[in-house]
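Q: Could you fold this chain for me?
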Amino acid sequence: MAKSKKKTSKKPTVIEVILALIIFVLGILFGDQVLPTTENTATTAGLADGKPAMHFVDVGQGDCTLITYNGDAVLIDAGPVSAGDAAAEYVKSYVDEIDYFIITHPHEDHMGGAADILDNIRVANIIMPDMEVDTRFYQNTMSRIDEKNINVIYSEAHAVYDTGNIKITIIDSVIPDDDNLNNVSIVTRIDAGSTSVMLSGDAEVEAEMQIVENYTSISGSALYDASILDCDVFKAGHHGSTTSNTSEFLDLVTPGTVVISCGTGNSYGHPHQETLDLFAGYGFEVHRTDHSGTVVLSGEP
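A: Sure. Below is the predicted structure, expressed as structure tokens.
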């Protein structure tokens, strides 16, 4: 009968002790990281396996954000006409159907690629401002909506939509302004799992200050609960312009992470240095599509 070998204890070497201490310290520093990030990566499914994923798609000078969780998908904007095919290809590589497609406002760098999205991916619902503009990209988008009989929801303040895994909250009413379509941008909070994202399109100072006024009690008469504005991630307003991203608004959003979607060497100078300095002063972790390409953040279930 074979006898089992007696195990003898071995004292750890100095090197093993040092390695163990290094691993312990790294665990303390990075073990609670909420939003691991990948940039310039074509395949990011592993990063978000079983977790919410926020894809800030590189569409050059424009916006396109895909949020996915447990098979549900919300798309916010579609980039410019020139990036429509690329945006559609990217989104289609991750989802077969979009539950809600939010078009924040009818500017070409946000809505231009919408027709390509609708040509290539099933869309159940579209949320957009109730206004028309006389542009080809707008007409092309509305034609596709009619052809495919897609349900259109015109945005209303404080409306809530739920896919079962992703919740959409329309933050506030837009400011009707035919001269400045940026201020009709839909401002949206999206919750996927326990991670929240604030997206404000190109909403400028006037729109941000309207939200601040409605959600704070400086005058003792806040209309709404400001806690709904407190989010983990903020997609910088108006591509990081100084016309948006006011400190009063940021004081309510208090994100840990900011993503700036803009094109390399764009003629607008986005993001503006003053905005970058403001973000740095808050200590935000900042990612830029003009530097890193598509940015994907992984949230918590």
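A (continued): The chain has one domain: 51-298.
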